[in-house]
Amino acid sequence: VKIVQGALRILGSYGLACVLLLDLFLLTLFGTLYQVESGLFEAQKRYFESWFVVQRSPVPLILPGGLFCMGLLAVNLFVGGMVRIQKRARTAGVMIVHVGIALLLASGFVKLYHSEDGHLTLAEGEQSDEFQSYFLWEVAVWDASQTGPVEERLIPHEQLVDLVDGKARTFTSPTLPFDLELSGFLRNCQPMPKGPNWQADSPVIDGYALLRTEDQVEAERNIAGLTVRLRERDGSRSEENILWGENPFRVANYPVTFESGGKTWAVSLRHTRYPMPFTIRLEDFRKEDHPGLNLARSFESDVTKVEDGNEQKVHIQMNEPLRHGGLVLFQSGFDRGQPGREVSIFSVVRNPSDYWPLYACIVIAVGLVIAFVPKLFKFVRAQNQLRAKPGVST
Amino acid sequence: MKPHPARWLSLFLSVVVALGSSTSAQTAARAPWSERTLELFASLPVQEGGRVKPLDTFAQFRLLRFNGKRSFRTEGGEKLVPIAWLLDCLFFPEQASSYRTFLVRDQAVLEAVGVRVAGRKKSDRYTYDELAPGRLKLFSEGERIRAIEEKQRSGLDTQIHALAVNLRDFESLTHALDFARVELSTNASPALKARFGTEPMRGVAGFLGRIPELRRTLEDELAALDDAERATEHAAFEEVSNQLARAVSLSTAFAVFPPSVTSQEEWLYTDGAAERASGDDAPEELALLTGWEALERAKDDPAAFEGALTTLHGRVTSLAERRGEYGKVQLEVNFYRGDYFTRALVAFLAAFVVLCASWLAPRARSLGKAVFGLTAIGTVLVVVGVTLRCIIRSRPPVSTLYETILFITGCCAIVLLVIEWIQRQRIALALAPVMGAAGMFLAMKYELKEATLAGDTMPSLVAVLDTNFWLATHVTSITLGYAAGLLAAALGNLWLIGKMVGLKRGDKEFYRTLSRMTYGVVCFGLFFSVVGTILGGVWANYSWGRFWGWDPKENGALLICLGEIFILHARMGGYAREHGLAVLTALNGLCVAFSWWHVNNLGVGLHAYGKTEGVLRALYTYYGIGLAIVVASFVWRLWTRPAGASAKAESVPQAS
Fold first, then answer.
1. Of A370, B368, B526, B590, which residue is least crowded by CB atoms under 10 Å?
2. pLDDT digit string, tens, across residues B301-341
3. Which residue of chain B has the CA closest to A380?
């Protein structure tokens, strides 16, 4: 019991709170500065979604990472700010604030582990019932000789990204007459005609190989690549090829094809796609500038939402998203596209904790008011009494 | 700005302009502009930066950009206000070219373009005539630098580019009325003479007004002529057309022609107005062109000029009113005439002077009241100025960086006056004029940047910011949080410096009160910082689908929240006492500066406004001074602490 009490005392202590707050402060500061050179995505992974951070510059430091720090902070907040705190009327505000912060942290964890986000990019007249990730990749395999709806076999992002330093992984499926061996994942690369002046980062196929390039500061601009070996199950034949990801915004790539079992199979590396429970068709996109300026005053899309055969006209614009079926579609950008056929870009998010931050904000605000306002009144009263004392100069 | 066909042929056009500069040469010195003329001209509307504003605002910020000041004295000793300067540029360009209009901060700029003017300081002002010999070189350098990304430009590059742009814009002003001065050869052929008389026509409006008739009749008339006569007439008409087109294409300084078609949002430059005026159904555009030409003709006769201006003003304003775009023009003129922020600066400085006097005579209570009164006047002026800006823009008080300075200054002054009203210990009163003056001084400095970057301090907003609800809630809260953080930092620094210099030595109650005030302001700041930061996340969630994206601006706000939460926990845990509280709030002030300004200059994220010259230098100076005070306070503490003294001996400041 004493050990538990001691542990609780430490876990709920002001000292631990201060250490963790200082750690989070430093993570935030250095994570912000790190973005200048390496971009948001890398900074996020390195400082805020990690267990530990080893930093060499601008100041050499080893710090508990964002996950560790915020996890322990949640424990500290629960133990110190809700369990061990003296439960009196004057601490009610502080307790409410801690509940709000706990809700905020919870919404962050839910978002981190249970949300999907990406974009839906449509030209006027186009429609889609899926959106695609900005950052995650998948390998898709399908029967290219099929017509109509195509059944795809998918290899997810997490099974691809660790295929580095000679590591390979073989994928088999009872529905496929062949196996795939994937290796040599490159986060950002470029297929180039192999010449004598550069070292290829993949096998040379038909005179072409992948050249690893520096990661982009805007991580969504990275184009991944890897090597695929397609092998007949009986070992009679195998082909090696390179897969290069598609450009995030509409520049189509071409799948690798493989003849097997009397069919032509297509294999493609692409951004992870997520299905939507409805179809969105872009009817019209409009961008309005401030008069005389090349500065957008508004950009907005008229879309048709098709669900179970029912069509509904919806207007989406900045600060006015479409929320439906657990998804939120935001007007996030546009592309001039072909003349007369503009392209609208929607950010799409599936986040179970969508409204939690708003609730947390209300709870925290109420808690802070309850905590601070009585102190303010007490302070004013004390000052008035002080001034009322004879001999006190005002 | 959108590429305008005639207006934005970049610097190349300026070269052409110079070749034709003799057409605008005027030698006569003008009579002083009457008050009525200045008033009418100031309230003429112009569309610039995506909104309709008075010509007075246009003139003020043009002059501020060129000159670094809003008014100056001519060699003859006449003080020129912006609108008078603009009138000179338009109607007496040769005279305006002799004013020392252009501020060059480093003579190396002139050396780079081969201009030498003897007897000038390193940073000085020059006339257009002095700079003109180097203009071709300046423009070609300007073009070269324009191709370089802003981040990569050297300080000298930036200055050369700015001077090239300023010179080009000045030339565009001096040629703005070429369309009214041009002499058209309307007497060069029999057919022209028959229509327009034997004298050449001055100005384009008369010819434009006859174009519909020419379209109807000229073809038949020329068809009746023999080939030689027809060729002569063709050549004569073509020459007139060329003269007209050239003059119109050079007269494109500003969009002062409200379109008569109300559905058209974009106001017309001279070329657009001329195109409309030549149609069958645009008498209003023609009338406006005629009005400007009448002004040009009457410029040597003040009474006639005033009469012509009254007529033009009536036409333009009635058209703008019909379009619903004139409602706030006069208010904006009055706002800038009021010069609230400069007057507030004067009031704060006066309060500071009286404050210093009150330290010499601590028993003179009237001096304390005077400080309070003057600070209150300065504060009211800031509040009135901010309120008028809200009305003019139809926006909440904060939507640009410039406005954050005004708002923070006003809030700090108000909070300090309220604290003083409650405490009456002259601690808050001592800080109020200092923070007020510093804020207004910063606002004046940054206004110059805004004049360069955005044209004025009321720019159009990008689409995502076009929401008064979130500007009123998130932006206002977060700015209040900044204000409180800076105020707490000022109080913390006062504690540290006071201790070090021996202010109120031995008066423990003074420092205890100071700590209580600091703590109270930190609580106040924490409330607004936390609520503002979360509301920002809610807005981001609403607009972009994510509550938190670790964007630098978001992180900056989080740093302030974490800093202030740390301060409260360190204090409650007994880790920070009076000295610790002062140190932490002083350091938190550096966080506020980082969040307020630095993250915008990092060049990444959703709030990156690019490198604003001078801002980073000022920030590093501020960080250096702040850290130096903190370090010095620790040295002082070690130096003065009696041997064996414990930190526990220092009392914990109480919240109430």
1. A370
2. 999 999 999 999 999 999 999 999 999 999 999 999 999 99
3. B422
DSSP annotation of A220: G
CB within 8 Å of B64: residues ≥ 6 apart: B70, B82, B447, B448, B451
Q: In the Cβ-directed half-sphere of A189, how many Cα atoms lie within 13 Å?
A: 24
Count of other CB atoms within 10 angstroms of residue A251: 8
Beta carbons of A78 and A356 less than 8 angstroms apart: no
Answer yes or no: are the C-beta atoms of A51 and A67 closer than 8 Å: yes
- The encoded tokens of residue A102 equal 């706990």
C-alpha A345/C-alpha A128 separation (Å) is 12
DSSP A320: B
Å from A225 to nearest chain B CA? Answer: 27
Residue pLDDT, tens place only, B146-166: 999 877 888 899 999 999 999
Please report, to the nearest 10 degrees, the dihedral formed by the alpha carbons of residues A244, A246, A252, A258 taken in order: 40
Residue of B nearest to A81 (CA): B569
Whether omega for the bond prior to residue A58 falls within 30 degrees of 0, making it cis, is yes
pLDDT digits 0-9 by tens, B384-437: 999 999 999 999 999 888 999 999 999 999 999 999 998 888 889 999 999 999
Question: How many CB atoms sit inside 10 A of residue A386's CB?
Answer: 14
CB B36 within 8 A of CB B262: no
Chain B interface, mutation test: which of A45, A105, A110, A290, most B Cβ atoms within 10 Å?
A290
Burial of A308 (C-beta count, 10 Å sphere; 0-12/13-18/19+) = exposed
Question: Do the Cβ atoms of A18 and B463 come within 8 Å?
Answer: no
Query: What three-state secondary structure class fits A226?
Result: strand
Amino acid at A310: N
Distance of alpha carbon B315 from alpha carbon B285, whole angstroms: 10
DSSP A242-267: EEEPPPSSS-----EEEEETTEEEEE
Please state whether beta strands A310-317 and A52-55 pair in parallel, antiparallel, or not at all (unpaired): unpaired
ipTM of the complex: 0.82
Quote the CA–CA distance of A19 and A21 in Å, as a whole number.
6
| Residue B644 CB-half CA count within 13 A | 0
Select the residue of B1, B470, B562 nearest A21 (Cβ to Cβ).
Answer: B562
pTM score of the predicted model: 0.84
Question: What distance in Å separates the CA atoms of residue A389 and residue B437, rounded to the nearest whole number?
Answer: 35
Q: How far apart are CA A31 and CA A39, in angstroms?
A: 10
pLDDT at B184: 95
Interchain contact, B551 vs A291, CB within 8 Å = no
Check pLDDT > 60 for residue B653: no
Give the per-residue SS3 of A162-218.
CCCCCCEEEECCCCCCEEEEEEEEECCEEEEECCCCCCCCCCCECCEEEEECCCCCC
**Cα(A1)–Cα(A6) distance, integer angstroms:** 8
User: Which DSSP state fits A79?
Assistant: I
Counting every residue, how long is chain B?
656
Chain A interface mutation, best of B562, B577, B587, B619, highest count of A Cβ atoms under 10 Å: B562
- Contact list in B for residue A365 (CB cut-off 8 A) is 527, 530-531
SS3 content of chain A, % helix, strand, coil (to 5): 30, 40, 30
- Which candidate, B242, B11, B21, B42, places its Cα nearest to that of B142? B11
Handedness of CA A320, A322, A327, A333 (dihedral sign): negative
Burial A58-68 (b: 16+ CB within 10 A, else e): eeeeebbbbeb
The tokens for A122 are 């449509």
Separation in Å, CA of B220 to nearest CA in chain A = 40
Residues 6+ apart with CB under 8 A from B203: B179, B180, B181, B182, B184, B289, B293, B296, B297
Q: Chain-wide mean pLDDT for chain B?
A: 88
